[in-house]
């Protein structure tokens, strides 16, 4: 499937479904090292996104991504709203007016999302944040595109790397966010933002394959 507007809309629907499915898990992860609202906030945000997308009309993937950004920023509390909202906003800008995302444009979209998170949160890989998922995802996507992979395969490589990146946060000491106040007590717990990033990127892959939502 081409990474076109229909794909972007399906990505939104699958993201809303997977966040709803994993809401309790994300709440638990955040309760262990944060304030426990990550799953609830994201679920509320993507319900609003889904309503806006299902009720809207879009000509490009970038237009869909921009709607996701504005809804997340306006409806999601805590750190997740500004961080994911900025990621989607920068991704929309990178997508521009393209009717489909080719491999190189997809890499630019993912890199812009990562850079948006970094600029907003001032975190780096190793700080035990969602950047630990976004960073490897962009690196893997870049390598896959350079090797000649098609957009769907580039996206799959990014999602796989994000999942591994989320897992890699477990032994880390947090240097940003609420978890940073816990010091060594945060060790052994997975960062909820990295995990939700992995779920969001996996939903994007499922939208290319027609896998069950």
Short summary of the structure?
The protein is an all-alpha fold. Helices cover 69% and strands 0% of the residues.
Protein described:
It is a single chain. Helices cover 69% and strands 0% of the residues. It is mainly α and 213 residues long. The chain has a single domain (5-209), classed as Alpha Horseshoe (Serine Threonine Protein Phosphatase 5, Tetratricopeptide repeat). The mean pLDDT is 92. This is Dihydroxyacetone kinase subunit DhaL. Its EC number is 2.7.1.121. Residues 6-206 form the DhaL domain. Keywords: Kinase, Transferase.
Could you name the CATH homologous superfamily? Answer: DhaL domain
**CATH topology description:** Serine Threonine Protein Phosphatase 5, Tetratricopeptide repeat
| Low-confidence region ranges | none
What is the H/E string?
HHHHHHHHH
Q: Report the total helices.
A: 9
**Any idea how many domains?**
1
Return the CATH class: Mainly Alpha
- Alpha-beta classification: mainly alpha
Rounded mean pLDDT is: 92
Strand element count: 0
| Biggest sheet architecture | none
Shape: globular
- Please give the radius of gyration in angstroms: 16 Å
Please state the second-level CATH architecture: Alpha Horseshoe
Helix content: 55-70%
- How much of the sequence lies in strands comes to under 5%
Determine the N-to-C terminus distance: 16 Å
């Amino acid at each position: 499937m081409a990474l076109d507007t229909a794909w972007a809309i399906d990505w939104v629907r699958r993201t809303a479904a997977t966040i709803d499915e994993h809401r309790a898990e994300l709440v638990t992860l955040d309760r262990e090292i944060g304030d426990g609202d990550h799953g609830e906030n994201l679920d509320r945000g993507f319900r609003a996104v889904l309503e806006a997308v299902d009720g809207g009309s879009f000509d490009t993937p970038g237009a869909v991504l921009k709607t996701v950004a504005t809804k997340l920023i306006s409806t999601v509390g805590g750190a997740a709203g500004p961080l994911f909202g900025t990621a989607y906003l920068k991704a929309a800008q990178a997508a521009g007016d393209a009717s489909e995302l080719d491999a190189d444009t997809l890499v630019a979209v993912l890199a812009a999302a990562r850079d948006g998170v970094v600029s907003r949160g001032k975190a780096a890989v190793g700080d035990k944040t969602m950047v630990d998922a976004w960073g490897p995802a962009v690196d893997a996507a870049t390598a896959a595109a350079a090797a000649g992979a098609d957009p769907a395969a580039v996206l799959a490589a990014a999602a796989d790397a994000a999942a591994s990146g989320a897992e890699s946060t477990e032994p880390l000491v947090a240097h940003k966010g609420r978890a940073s106040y816990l010091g060594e007590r945060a060790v052994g717990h997975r960062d909820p933002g990295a995990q939700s990033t992995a779920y969001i990127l996996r939903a994007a892959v499922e939208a290319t394959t027609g896998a069950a939502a």
